[in-house]
Prior knowledge:
Number of strands: 11
Distance between the termini: 65 Å
Mean pLDDT: 82
Largest sheet: 9 strands, mixed
Helix content: 25-40%
Amino acid sequence: MSNKSYGCLIILLLLGLIVSLGLNVGQFVSKLDVDVGTGAGFSAARPKRHLHEVTVESPKMNSQEKIVHIDLEGVISSMSMSGLFAESMPSVDSIKQSLEQAVADTRVKAIVLRVNSPGGEVTASDIIYNAVKKAAKSKPVVVYMDSMAASGGYYVACGASKIVASETTLTASIGVIIETMNYSELFGKVGLSMTAFTSGAFKDSLSGARPMREDEKAYVQNLVMQMYDRFLGIVSEARGVPKEQLKSTVADGRVVTGREALAAKLVDQIGYVEDAYELARTLGKAKDAGVVKYRHEVSLFDAFGMASAKAGTPPAKVQLDVSTGLLPKLLPGVPYYLPPSFAH
Length: 344
């Protein structure tokens, strides 16, 4: 190839890149101002992108009606994820946004929330529960419990209109846990000590540098029981089962199967996700509705933004710990809705 031809090729490639960047930036800016699907404006303080739809099941008879499938997967956390990771680890904000978009879309007749979670942070679980309950006041919300919908996962499900569980689903685990680690004896063996200056007797109650006093244990236990009582009240209200009955049967932290949950009136029926779709169609009076999922679109703008944030930093070392790395790590002093096996 001659130098002249080579130079023309370079110019064409550069022009193509500039046009592509222009289109992506324009698309990004337009999404900051307006939700294309519903015409709803977003706050300038915290702009949101419109979530794009992917068809799961095509509608019948060319129907425009839709059932939206939303996934709640993994440990429920207040930690926010963005960009390329938003879909793989949905945050509280992304679940709320999905529910809000589904409610605002007049063609959406019902929502199926697939829960596959061992639970997680108390407050994060409560926020999502409230968002689900709010959505259910506008449109039917059916929760489908996958492999696990325990503790905080079940807490979230209580906001739905109906709950469908697989026969082998592990659910319930109605309870609260707060953990801390005490290393005061280890300090003594290695000759270390810690001095804390506090403004009150309970300011360092969960410090691992010293044994807990009995009044501190009572104080923390009281916090746990307050949150447990709220959990119990939400289950009782949602499922129409008295608190005392729940306490004497399944509300002691145990995990039960979907079949046992049905017998305890914790779920409405046994089935698979397809059964949840059919129930949603029935409740939404949309027998021909298709099923769609939402996804976050990652533009070149996002890719360049993430690349620039990483510029000048050394490559990250990737480590895989197959012993405990796949389990959620509890932060000391943070209350969680988690089953016992996940709390250690």
